[in-house]
Amino acid sequence: IGNTVLHILVLQPNKTFACHMYNLILSYDRNKEGPGSLELIPNNEGLTPFKLAGVEGNTVMFQYLMQKRKQNLWSFGPLTTVLYDITEIDSWAEDQSFLELIVSTKKREARQILDLTPVKELVSLKWNMYGRPYFCFLALFYILYMACFTMCCVYRPLKPRTGNRTSSRDNTVYVQKMLQESYVAYEDELRLVGELITVIGAVVILVLEIPDILRVGAAKYFGQTILGGPFHIIVITYACMILVTMVMRLTSTTGEVVPMSFALVLGWCNVMYFARGFQMLGPFTIMIQKMIFGDLMRFCWLMAVVILGFASAFYIIFQTENPENLGQFYNYPMSLFTTFELFLTIIDGPANYDVDLPFMYSVVYFAFAIIATLLMLNLLIAMMGDTHWRVAHEQDELWRAQVVATTVMLERKLPRCLWPRSGICGREFGLGDRWYLRIEDRVDPNKHKMMRYTEAFKAQDRDNYDKGSEKLETNGDTLCKKELSALSLSRSTSRTSSHRGWEILRRNT
């Protein structure tokens, strides 16, 4: 019952009352230390009161609980060394990481905890010592891996075509080799090494991604932008395309260019995932994700309807015409592709001025230009501008959350020998088996002195203004001008004294 009440207090809107009641209930706890403590009993979702405060974004309760956990090591003048208990915060030995819970929640208030002590210092320590070097090495390794895969695709086994052409539009000169012909020369053996590296890399990607999907859940794993959801979809699809290409190569099935092309596009697009490790490029990837999976996805439905309607109309209009003079609409699939290019203004309206065009073509193309180019494209630009404005206010906050998510991901993937535990064991200071983070704080006495000066000047101005207002209200209409002049004189006097005070404050600064 006491543990349930603690969880309810964390969710209370009255933060001061919740803190006092929380402390009162813990005072009656018999097992204040150890696994039987009320603070260490999780709820049905596996959250202790401390983790629940972080997930809900209750910064007041989080700071209150952290103040209870800190230990003042020593103090010398303005310098103070504090040990913060990071037992539940550190993700090193936690199955359900506190940092991962914060970055995966949908509440924006929870991400503000990443700027609080000691979470900010712990994340900075992990990222600067281990996270950034490992992430940069991983980015370089992935780029080299994609370069290897690209070279294997460029020099894939092809042979000259031996059959006759079946159409005047057929311009194929090379065809895919069979499996027995693909690995004969020395160059083929070099390509085979690169292909084996590519396949092994695809298998490793699937082995690393599938356990996280089962642990976190597909909806949260692919749906959270901070956790890299879109990029996880891209890299898993890329690995599947590599395996499909391998099966088609082993069975000598024609058409391997289709999965190979998809794999090249997806693999190189996934390089943008590594931009989150750099503050200059990280916020831009956030905006790209928001625009693609927000504005562009909704806009594509409207664009598909418009393209389908006008492409059908163009195909019907040119169905009776000679395709050699106007070949952009010679069949229905080509009509769809041409209309898509017209929609994005990639090409101009197809017209041959040496022949007569149908009258309906001019009418339909006029309506298409008004609806597609002038209306819908400008609508898309306005939607993206609005998304950019909204994301720009929180892009730094989202980037820091991405850094935390990347740090937790690397900490889980890498062996323990490559990523030692951060902090100091409490046994060194006689504090048990808990782990602590040592933080040095400097208290500037001049800062407090200047704050006192500022408050004194503000109080003096406030008193002078109140006195002048009282005089103005008590006097009648006949003495109004005199009192106004007196009030202006008193204000000028107070302003002069306040000005001298601010000059003193400025020199002290």
TrEMBL record:
InterPro entries: Ankyrin_rpt-contain_sf (IPR036770), Ion_trans_dom (IPR005821), TRPV (IPR024862), TRPV5 (IPR008346), TRPV5/TRPV6 (IPR008344). The chain crosses the membrane at residues 134-158, 192-210, 231-251, 257-275, 296-318, 359-381. It is found in: Membrane. Keywords: ANK repeat, Membrane, Metal-binding, Phosphoprotein, Repeat, Transmembrane, Transmembrane helix. One of its GO terms (molecular function) is metal ion binding. GO terms for cellular component: plasma membrane. This is TRPV5 protein. The lineage of its organism: Eukaryota, Metazoa, Chordata, Craniata, Vertebrata.
